[in-house]
Design brief:
Blueprint lengths: L12 H30 L9 H19 L21 H28 L6 H36 L1
Length: 162
């Protein structure tokens, strides 16, 4: 994914459209992950998640997670040279990046397991389905949190420099 540092208003019309299409694609990916997990959970006959409203909520939540958590604004520039590789936990921006990456990983694993279970027509226990659903929800929540934190920091950095 290309990280653009120039402001939105200075981008070309092609760059703006590319960004919008990319973000819609990310949201659709999150929607499909939510749908696959919802269908898998729904096959276990769990009353709470079997309704159309619950499936729609999982799709919307998945869309929000992938929309906010994957295409985050870049971290503020660090003008120090980092050779050789830095040791230690890294910066706050690194932590937010890890939060987003771990959330994406959890949500994607839950979607892959759900799809494979649906395709192979396996019947899972209610316990494993709930574990999978919670794993997906935690991963998606991590994505949303990382996206919000990164955007708040970007806005704070922008207002501090102006």
């Amino acid at each position: 994914m290309i990280k653009r540092s120039d402001p939105w208003h200075s981008r070309s019309i092609v760059s703006r459209w590319a960004h919008v299409l990319e973000r819609i694609g990310l949201a659709l990916t999150g929607t499909s992950c939510g749908l696959f997990v919802a269908v898998h959970v729904g096959r276990a006959d769990i009353e709470l998640i079997g309704s159309a409203a619950a499936v729609l909520a999982m799709m919307v939540y998945g869309a929000a997670g992938f929309y906010l958590g994957i295409d985050m604004p870049p971290a503020p520039p660090d003008h120090r040279m980092h050779l050789p590789l830095r040791r230690g936990p890294g910066s706050r921006a690194d932590t937010v990046e890890l939060l987003s990456a771990a959330g994406t990983f959890l949500a994607a694993v839950a979607a892959v397991v759900s799809v494979s279970s649906i395709i192979l027509d396996e019947t899972a226990s209610a316990r494993s389905v709930l574990l999978l659903g919670f794993g997906w929800a935690i991963g998606t929540t991590m994505q949303i949190a990382a996206g919000i934190i990164a955007r708040i920091r970007a806005d704070a950095d922008a207002s501090a420099t102006s």
